[in-house]
Write a structure and sequence with these properties.
- This protein is α/β, with parallel strands linked by helices.
- It has two domains: 252 residues, Metal-dependent hydrolases (TIM Barrel); 61 residues, no CATH class.
- Helix content is 30%, strand content 18%.
- The chain has 14 helices and 17 strands.
- Strands 1, 2, 3, 4, 5, 6, 7, 10, 11 and 14 form a ten-stranded mixed sheet that branches. The chain has a three-stranded antiparallel sheet with strand order 16-15-17.
- It starts with a strand and ends in a 9-residue tail after the last strand.
- The C terminus is likely disordered.
- The structure holds zinc ion (ZN) (2 copies).
- One zinc ion binds next to loops.
Length: 418
């Protein structure tokens, strides 16, 4: 049974998140995208946890997943740990939790309330180290899954250039062997992570981290499971058996792919930045070192190496972006929305568009939009890469693109091209 899962979203109780992000709204959004198993997000928030309990019940017969209006929910939350390591350096990381029952979620909330104000934000800040956090969680239940979130983003991640460390072991110490999966984040894809042999044992997971319904499933995981249950999903994450593929953002689209300064309008490849000792030529301060740079700093393999039991991935671009770029209209425009709705109606959901063959896609929409979708499917696209909080920009036409900025041709991507 094919199951598409998104394990990381936020609710209306998290900062800068749409008021439509709740159990009702997320279920609707998931159906449009083609997501079967949807994260609740934010179960640590008391008001949201009350909503979860009242709408999803105790889930006693649900084997750790909670059926709701045609989809299934998985209890998920993201927390931020803040601590000083043994050398006194400030560490800040986000970790995702997946738990198998309301009862265990309640215990997690009780335990975490000691370390921060859970009611302040859907993604609470906790004064606890990663290892102490893991200890607390696994003492509640060995079935709890801890997944380091957006593992490479400069701030708030396990490998981040600011506030991160150099290995899962450095963060989780004697609990590291219980960490078996990690979220690659929007600015990195599995191919980049495969450059680190120490990550071979870690299953790479992809989620949306959506703060609005439109962004659900911009990355997701595809499983082939006998039955959708919490245990079957966790087993697939552990063994990679039944973990078919991930849907990935092109990492260039991510907000922290390259290095630079948004305010100074400076975008640099990791190699250029290294030559300048990571200093901004405009303001003379340190550049925000992006994900690609960090990956290359920690890599011990050439780009292009694929570990033998790696889960394959498929790069996609959100359909709204593809349509908006093709029509040269803002993605909030009525024309874009109409084309989007038409395609979703025709195929059933957004992911089904990317699973269809050329013939079907050409029947469903205009020649130019069909062309763009097929180019995304084959990787025939260019990017102005994202940097310092600015999303990358998709370039579909061969002639266009900002002449002043560098674009990356996906077809020629190799280590030497960056
Ligand atoms: Zn986060
Ligand atoms: Zn600057």
């Amino acid at each position: 049974m094919r199951i598409v899962a998104d394990f990381h979203v936020h609710s209306k109780y998290a900062r800068a998140t749409s008021p439509r992000n709740d159990i009702e709204g997320l279920a609707e959004g998931a159906k449009i995208k083609g997501i079967d198993v949807m994260a609740t997000g934010d179960f640590t928030h008391p008001a949201y946890f009350a909503e979860i309990k009242s709408l999803l019940g105790d889930g006693a017969d649900a084997e750790g997943l909670f059926p709701y209006k045609g989809i299934r929910y998985i209890l998920s939350t993201e927390i931020c740990v803040i601590y000083h390591n043994s050398e006194g350096k400030l560490k800040r990381m986000h970790h995702i939790l997946l738990v198998p029952s309301i009862e265990i979620a309640a215990q997690v909330n009780d335990r975490l309330a000691k370390y921060g104000k859970l009611e302040e934000d859907g993604r609470p800040m906790l004064k606890i180290s990663s290892v102490a956090f893991a200890e607390e969680m696994f003492s509640i239940s060995p079935d709890i899954v801890i997944m380091p979130a957006h593992a490479w983003t400069p701030w708030f991640s396990v490998f981040g250039s600011i506030g991160g460390v150099n290995s899962i072991e450095e963060a989780f110490e004697d609990k590291a062997d219980k960490i078996f999966c990690m979220e690659t984040g929007l600015s990195s894809d599995p191919a980049m992570n495969w450059m680190l042999s120490k990550l071979d044992r870690i299953t790479l997971v992809s989620n949306s981290d959506a703060h609005s319904l439109e962004k659900l499933g911009r990355e997701a995981n595809v499983f082939d499971l006998e039955r959708p249950t919490f245990k079957n999903i966790v087993d697939a994450l552990k063994t990679r058996k039944g973990f078919t593929k991930t849907y990935e953002f092109y990492p260039e689209e991510g907000k922290y792919h390259y290095d630079g300064h948004r305010k100074c309008n400076v975008l640099m490849t990791p190699w250029e930045a290294a030559q300048k000792k990571n200093m901004c030529p405009v303001c003379k301060k340190k550049l925000t070192v992006g994900v690609m740079h960090r990956v290359f700093d920690l890599a011990d393999r050439k780009f292009g190496y694929k570990p033998k039991d790696a889960v394959p991935f498929q790069s996609i671009v959100p359909l709204t972006t593809v349509i908006s770029k093709t029509l040269k209209k803002p993605d909030t425009s009525r024309f874009v929305k109409e084309e989007y709705d038409k395609l979703v109606r025709y195929f059933g959901n957004e992911f089904a568009v990317f699973e269809s063959d050329a013939e079907k896609i050409r029947l469903a929409t205009s020649a130019s939009i069909a062309d763009s979708i097929l180019r995304v499917k084959t990787g025939d696209v260019k990017w102005v890469p994202g940097y310092d909080g600015v999303f990358g920009e998709l370039i579909l036409s061969d002639s266009s693109g900002s002449a002043t900025k560098k674009s990356v041709d996906k077809k020629q991507k190799s280590l030497d091209d960056f």
